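Technical note accompanying the year-one report. For the benefit of new consortium partners, we illustrate the data format agreed upon in the data management plan: each record pairs a sequence with a structure-token string. No post-processing was applied to the example shown here.
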Amino acid sequence: MEKTIEIKPERAQYITVTDVTFAQVDDWYGHCRKDLKMDIIYPEDFSKKRYPCIVWICGGGWLTMNKSAHLAYLSKIAMAGFVVASVQYRTSNEAFFPAQLEDVKAAIRYLRAHADRFRINPKKFGVSGESAGGHLASLAALATAKKFDVGEYLKESSSVQAACPWYPPADFGTFPKPPEGYDLTPPHILLMGFNPERDPKKAAEANPVNYIKKKVPPFLIIHGSNDHTVPHDQGKQLHDALEAKGNDVTLLTIKDADHADLRFFQEQVWNEMINFFTSVLK
């Protein structure tokens, strides 16, 4: 049997490029250098269209991360009409804060510098991430001081125009203390390299709520009502502080959801994020 069909190309094809080096940073006590990498999903078609870019930041308590863990889900965002880049950052055993934020901002600058290569609209960037990645996504949107821009492509902006943090730590000053008998160092203390009770002013630099002012990018905060790792109140604090300054913010609460549980990886949640980024970036 033979069969012929005629197809009119109406949609782009989406290309996945992995392990793109976007920066080099000091490693092994400053003796060596290490590549930081990202995975990029981007569209190719016959047009000259440029697409908004969404930067995704993996979680893991700032202790571990894998930039490729969520590519299957991130492809859903890409095929809704975005470039998506999932970025690596140094974990807390490699460098203390603010190195992680510096890495995220370096990735954004790299993407702007290579906007033509990856079909990016350099004026339209969103940032998202879960848990520790939600914390860094919030900071990427709110902490605009030039001191956090370190490394290459410094002529490019690291600003973003929208943020969607998932269950983000927002204020370590109100973070629950470990239960009695807990004999491990909490991840946020490992991130900073000191106990925040000993230097609250320095610790405040890692709190997204401390950077909120008027006219920050729109936020969609997604948090589970039954989160035992980053309590729902953290997302609520971020929401309330943004709203108090008159900013565009929505707190989307997932009923009964614990930290990073399967409810977050259902199509409905990803559609909420896609609809948010579509409304503010397109």
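Partners are asked to follow this layout when depositing records. The two ends are 45 Å apart (CA to CA).
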